[in-house]
Amino acid sequence: MESIWQKRVKTAVERSLDTKVFAAFNTNVDVVVHMDDDNVQRILADSDVSLADVATLDVDAIDVVRDKNQFVSVLKDCLGKGKSFHIVLEAMELLDWLESVFPQRRETMGGQAGIIANQMAALGADSTVYTSLLAPKQAGMFFPEVRTPVIDEGVCLEPIHNAARVDDKVKINWIFEYKKDLKLDFAGETVVTPRANRVILATRPAGVYMGFQGELVNHLSELGQQINVAFMAGYHYAPSDPEAQQKYLNTTVDSLKQLKAANEHLRMHYEYVPMSDQDAEKNVLAAIAQEIQSFGINENEIKRVLKGFGYDAECQAIEEHERAYCLYEGTLRLMEALPFERIQLHNLGYYILVLKKPYAAHPEAVRDACLFASSVNAIKARDGGYVSQELVKDAADIDLSGIGYDQLQGFAKELMEHGVEVPESFLNDGILDRGDHYVLLVPAHVIPNPVSTVGMGDTISSSSYACEFCLSSAIAK
Description:
The protein is α/β, with parallel strands linked by helices. It contains 18 helices and 19 strands.
């Protein structure tokens, strides 16, 4: 079994992304901090921080960060559970405090659209991005090959470095990364990180808008003709006020329709980011799922979405014993609630995909594209930064994780225990026809102590979906 999958990896790493990729809307500057015990001690040395007060907080009830103790509560909880987390910083006055507490930091491109645009360019794709804020500092973080749409008697795709706007503000997000088995002393309480992950503390400056603006709104069908695969991100910024939210969603859905109006083959993907308002989140997902084909989410995030849609049993099953079978069941429930054609769940060591039939690509192409994405992500975890097309080939010599193979076997066994006929070929090909849908389980690479975890989900989803389009186009020809 392992040798067959490794042979596929060796083929996958030779792929190239000969396609036109578009990303929108959220870009920002990431300030990255690598957590260690010295950082924790600097936080605790602040007289405004009280671990006694932190202990009284219900961390699950903190929807935005308004003070230092809430920040410590969220950070400590995530470190102890090894979970990925995204939360908004409402108290902007804490930005100066963060700079003083974390002197060892680095600035890099942030935001799903920004990360995806650069990574696609690094892999050789024709990469275009659109964002509402494009200050010179932000524009300078894009690869020079990345372009952005401007209006000049129609839509022109211009080098993004030439399109910066000096009056625009900069959106800054703080990223706190941590390694596995990191020991941290919280005033005598030792917190050990069970896995590598990161916590994102996001800001929302004035002027940021997760949608198309200006003259471009009237030229979206023309823009859509110039791209093949679109990665739409930032809808988690939708307003909570019912009237403002409905107006935003109406505009959003209309813009998605316009993008596809003159290009019926345009494929669109949305990568999940949690919203603080769960009711608003349900409305946003239900609206965009009408027009976007593909959805990406991880093993922690799916629990929140399942609970929001009332699938408490599926959520509890994942909480109690996270494994491929219950994650598949949860993914299937999401597809029943939301009309996505493709849902990709990425977990440590394997990916689960559910494809609604009839699906636009062959399941084999989807699987092989996931192996390409795993290879890209493995090199990103090993080296950090963006992965070039040439460097992807290094992954041919990196074994897929035993986690994935174990999950393949466990998944097949559990399906059969539930009366599902599973052919012997499943362990070798990872594809199962369930009548109205396909389910795929794809083993993935795991790099111990990754250099970086920021943007891994975005990298996996964008690399796999763009590669899937290329493979499908090649088959169609």
